[in-house]
Write a structure and sequence with these properties.
two-stranded antiparallel sheet, mainly alpha, 200 residues
Length: 200
């Protein structure tokens, strides 16, 4: 079907252009689409690679290549926000607030009911990813069980990943203790054991 549409488009397009010129209409102005990159390193890398620079000296060429390699390495450590997230916050404006300071913490202690209490402590993710929310609490619960808790010993100690608790070195006795802490302190209810499917 797509090939038929393509053939039909190229068959009709020249006639439409001629008819538009005969009617004295101006040709449609091409508007270049704006590409917005979520990750700053990707935007910088795209601009560096795609921008043509004339009359550049060899030293600048080497510097650009080194800078590109550095951005590629940094980009490998970053991840874009999955489509399931609904971004509800803007990244903090510089100067950035350090996570080690609980008084100036940009991450709220009490989270939304559909926020992942573990992803918020993942420093490899962007601020938007860490603060992202799922469309429903049930989706967040599935995510926590399948991505973060599956295969973990339910009786082993587990730390709280929230930046405030992490800075205090808070370690819970077991997974149920962790879930209770998350619900009481951070306002996020996780799935009860009787509703968790065993992977065994």
């Amino acid at each position: 079907i797509s090939e038929e549409y393509r053939a039909d488009y190229f068959r009709r397009r020249p006639l439409e252009d001629i008819e538009r010129q005969n009617r004295g209409q101006q040709e449609e102005e091409y508007i270049e689409p704006v590409v917005e990159h979520q990750i700053p390193e990707r935007a910088q890398l795209a601009e560096l690679i795609c921008t043509h620079v004339a009359d550049i000296i060899p030293q600048d060429i080497v510097a650009r290549r080194i800078h590109s390699a550095g951005l590629m390495v940094a980009l490998c450590r970053r991840r874009e926000v999955p489509r399931r997230y609904r971004l509800r916050v803007a990244p903090p404006q510089p100067p950035l607030i350090k996570e080690e300071s609980p008084d100036l913490e940009p991450f709220p202690l009490v989270l939304a009911k559909s926020q992942c209490p573990i992803c918020i402590g993942d420093e490899s993710k962007s601020y938007e990813e860490r603060m992202g929310s799922f469309c429903r609490p049930a989706k967040m619960m599935d995510h926590v069980e399948r991505i973060h808790l599956e295969g973990r010993d339910p009786h082993a100690k587990i730390e709280c990943y929230h930046p405030v608790c992490k800075s205090e070195g808070l370690v819970l006795e077991h997974v149920e203790h962790f879930k209770g802490h998350v619900e009481i302190v951070h306002g996020v209810k996780l799935r009860e054991p009787r509703f968790v499917r065993s992977s065994k």
